[in-house]
Amino acid sequence: MTAAAPEHERAIEDSTYVVELDGITKRFPGVVANKDIGFAVRRGTVHAIVGENGAGKSTLMKILYGVQRPDEGTIKVGGTVVDLHSPSDAIGYGIGMVFQHFMLADNLTVLENVVLGAEDLHGIGGTARDRILEISRDYSLDVDPDVLVADLGVGARQRVEILKVLYRGAKIIILDEPTAVLVPQEVDELFDNLRELKSEGLTVLFISHKLDEVLRVADAITVIRRGTTVDTVSPQGITARQLAELMVGSELPTPQTEESTVTDQVILRVEDLVLKGPSRNVLDGVSFAIHAGEVLGIAGVEGNGQAELVEVIMGMRDQDTGQIFVDDTEVSKWHTRQIREAGIGYIPEDRHRHGLLLEAPLWENRILGHQTQEPNVKGGLINAKAARQDTERIVEEYDVRTPGIDVTAGSLSGGNQQKLIVGREMSHHPRVLVAAHPTRGVDVGAQAGIWDLMRAARREGMGVLLISADLEELIGLSDTIRVILRGRLSEAFDPDTVTAEDLGAAMTGADSSVTHPPAGPPHTPESPEGSAT
Amino acid sequence: MRQTMKYASVFAVAALALTACGSDSADSTDTGTADGTETSTAEEASDVRVGMAYDVGGRGDQSFNDAAAAGLDQAAAEFGIETQEATATDGEPESAREERLQQLIDAGYTSIVAVGFAYAPSIAVVAPQNPDVHFALIDSTDYEGENVANLVFAEEEGSFLVGAAAALKTRTDNVGFIGGVQTPLIEKFEAGYIAGAQEINPDIEIQRTYLTQPPDFSGFGDPAKGKTAAEGMYQSGADVIYHAAGGSGGGVFTAASEANTMAIGVDSDQAKTAAPEVQDVIITSMIKKVDVAVYEFLKAEVEGNFQAGPQVFDLAGGGVDYSTTGGKVDDIKDQLDELKQQIIDGEITVPSTPES
Amino acid sequence: MSRLEPRKILLPLVAPVVAVIVAFIVTSLVLLAVGDPVLEVWQVIFQPPLPRQTVNIINAATVFYLSAVAVAIGFKMNLFNIGVDGQYRVASFAAAVFAGQAWLPGVLNILVAILVAMVFGGLWAGIAGWLKVKRGVSEVISTIMLNAIATAVVAWLLSKARDPASEGTNVVRTRELPESSRLEGLAIVPGATNTVYTLIFLAALVGVTYWFVLNKTRFGFDLRATGKSETAAVASGVDVKKMTLTAMILSGAAAGLVGMPLLFGQDFSYGTTFQAGLGFAGIAIALLGRNHPVGIAFAALLWAFLDGQSNALQIQANVSKELVFIIQGVILFAVVIAYELVRRAEARMEQNRVARQLEERHAATAEQGVSA
Prior knowledge:
The structure holds three protein chains of three kinds.
Chain A: H1 9-14, E1 17-28, E2 31-42, E3 46-50, H2 57-64, E4 72-77, E5 80-82, H3 87-92, E6 95-98, H4 110-115, H5 119-122, H6 126-138, H7 154-167, E7 172-176, H8 184-199, E8 203-208, H9 211-217, E9 220-225, E10 228-233, H10 240-248, E11 266-276, E12 281-291, E13 295-299, H11 306-313, E14 321-326, E15 329-330, H12 336-341, E16 344-347, H13 351-355, H14 362-367, E17 377-378, E18 381-382, H15 384-397, H16 414-426, E19 432-436, H17 444-459, E20 463-467, H18 471-477, E21 480-485, E22 488-489, H19 500-508
Parallel strand pairs in A: 3-8, 3-9, 6-7, 7-8, 13-20, 13-21, 16-19, 19-20
Antiparallel strand pairs in A: 1-2, 1-4, 4-5, 9-10, 11-12, 11-14, 14-15, 17-18, 21-22
Chain B: H1 2-26, H2 30-33, E1 49-54, H3 64-79, E2 82-87, H4 94-106, E3 111-114, H5 120-129, E4 134-138, E5 148-153, H6 155-169, E6 174-181, H7 184-200, E7 205-212, H8 223-235, E8 240-244, H9 249-259, E9 262-267, H10 270-273, E10 282-288, H11 290-303, E11 309-313, E12 320-322, H12 333-344
Helix pairs in contact in B: 3-11, 4-5, 6-7, 6-12, 8-9
Chain C: H1 6-34, H2 38-46, H3 51-76, H4 84-101, H5 106-135, H6 139-160, H7 200-216, H8 218-228, H9 230-235, H10 240-257, H11 260-267, H12 278-288, H13 293-316, H14 322-368
Helix pairs in contact in C: 1-14, 3-7, 3-10, 3-12, 3-13, 4-5, 4-6, 4-10, 4-12, 5-6, 5-10, 7-8, 12-13, 13-14
């Protein structure tokens, strides 16, 4: 363990560990989420916890926040062993948590949201407002207590969440994947805030799997793999690649662009799709064409119409106007089953909700979505024998790690579930693959495998509609990238030349093509501070 | 699916619990008094062994079954006969009724009293198979046999008298009749009541309704339905209502109490047996002496005088009557007794089916 | 659904066996608490049934079975059809009226009347299905209401369709079936004077069909998928609305069959003595039998057996017949809890097994230095 950055002498002088974890173990059915986790956090630092999805970071933080109790191990706060039964216990010890999904009431003001549930502290009136303004000023959070949360952008909401935690007297703030919902500019702002917090003597526990961000902001980094601590390192002596290798325990695969395989044959064409929403159009004149051998990447901050676009194409939702063509056949009004039979494969965004029957065995999940197709059925009957055989094949070919095909889908890890889905879809040789966040929540190994599969499919002339929030994935796989913002598609970007900053700008509307400013104040990208802490 | 199954489990368990509770209250006295083969010490013990098969509700229903039980208790005390009781369950299959009778017989009870017309089909099966056993079937002549006594009542005659009482007592010349379920049995009550009221005042307005139609028998056990029906009649100008609706009658009394009007009870002297706070509204009751019928049957059994076929318990034999508890009809008692005598003498013939 | 592994067969059996044992203990405690003779009660309950009682139990179970399968069809789709009760009454009435007319001869009359019952049961349930699909009305609410409406409608129609021959008696019923359309039953229990319903074959056929359609057909797969995850079913191309309506109608059609053994094997008409409340028993039995065609059969037999103890308990043990409800209630309660515990235990065991095997494999690959 190396010393933290030298800018907070006081914190170093105190040199006390504000949080110490020792031997934390937590078991869930089928998985040991945490196993003998131990590390210590110094006061006045940003301490990052990194690990791939599913490594056990979130469980660990829930334990620290009193949401879950460890089966074994001790937690010390300020040198004393504590027993956290509930979040209120945690807050009592000065531990606050900002969840990935904000817990704010849209139709209440910032003030109301902050005091909600903490009315005892400073009342709900002037005193509370003064306190909020004071916190906002002290930590440069730039929060106006009297605006409606509904009117705030994502970044501002996050600051409200942080303020909420501070208002309750937290000295140790846990941020769970805080950058997942932010565009690059907002990430920079957040990091400024974090530095502010730490300069005031607060401690930040920062959970992430985005390594460059971690390197930029953290004073110490604890790496978790497979539920246990691998090491705690200083950002100075390590590169992102080394960190990643600690995380995955193997070499980091990267997506790489290959030679173009795009042909001139259009296989999926969407024209002027409009889907009306309660206040504005959720899809507002979306048009694109995907050629055989082409991967069209759609980037965008979540909630800008991606999910709806996929559902409209898959026939799960009816558009208000506009047409969809597969080859030259109009399928606009077709039912999901017909669309699937027409050769559109589907990797859903939420595999638990849309991709799998968690309580059903793997081989039944292999049938799902292809109930009318070979080898699953013969006439109106399920051909269990053939389906089982084919499941065995998928498990083999797509490296689904499972002891057998009779186990339930729910007992597999996320990555293996996803590989099963990909294998299932690929087995029917789709003309077009609609892949929404295909590697989300998937470990790095599985991610590489899925990327390889998509490249292979593309070579064979498949068209892919790739919706992703992972810019690296988009840039690495796509032949063309377009950004969706408020239901509208931007012009095409060339993945060979586009930068994350370009896309970020388009995603927030800072780009010239969109008139509305993003909800948060537009922010000029700062020079990356990367390694400088 | 799991969620649905969980709700369903709660539902199913609750339904069972409710069933159990529902019949529990009615049967609370069951285990106590029916505690078996108690042999009374009175006089010399008879070798008559009596099996009682009650209808749903059983002993403790404060109505029909209770009246039968009273007759049994009286006979048991007097003749020292051995008794055994069993009660029907709501929604049981037909075979369960047959089984009940047969099990009583198998246990050595040779005089079987089946309380209620619902036993008619079962007796039709069991009686021919057990020719040595004597059966009493209350309230039904649907099956008659060599070893079956049909104990039936001239409900229309008693109803005639309370109909007359209603016509004499009303100040609005508007009276009501509420039947529990529209079966021929209850129509006898209706027919007599109408005839009695019209005997006093041919122009009297009579409102009539039935709470339910067969096969829905909830009209005999739903006070809320009774109350709603009675409220409607009181609002339409009636000030006396006669109910022949079993347990639903409680609702009729409540409505009368709230509207400060009058009501007429049925089967037993309800000015004594109804809830104390509504006893005051009951001016009289049409008493159907099921206890007397059961007692008489058992007495005949002890004496070896079993008589098959229908035995009608009428005004003349004291099988039906009107009650005077509370003194509300003391002023018209002479008129009622005169009518009663006329019926006994055959000067008035009471119809047993209402003109439609 | 899955390969025959001893573990997979034994585990589901644990729950009902435990439940019955728990019910035995709890009931004994209840008996002790109220001072009833515990030993005598169990002696009465466990005495071997007489032949005629055996027949009664089989017959009652036959009817329960049909009712429970009707409920289970809904359960498989995540639909809670409380309306089996109303559906079978409407259907039985319709079939009784039809068959009573004797338009068709003998067996043909029976077969067509059974179809009539299925159609009416299906239509009556279809109302609830249609309301759910078109208006989003919960089937729980609508089927409860349809039960009440069925009661009133059947009562009203029965007064119109009453057999003149039953005038003057206290039995209100439809015209009786012609002799040629009555099923005498099967004298398969030696020593019994009564007979087993011929339509026990109908129940068996329904059970086999239920199993086959659900597990072997594409339609059944779609239905089960919808029950397990509606969202996944939609994404897989199942038209959930159509499926909901279809499942509801099928459940109702099966419900329509509930009254058939009674109609053709015992009552020969629909009327005041026709057995009521079978739909509710079906819910309990479907739960107890875990929606499995064989499980339901055992559950129906158990239920019928317990129901049949009501008389013996009163007459031979001098115990209140409500004891039967207590036993049934405790069994149901215990079995639901036990199933949930077993389900969790199974899930945990399986996940552990998967994790363990993968860990081993991972260790092996790590040794070989092969990366994922």
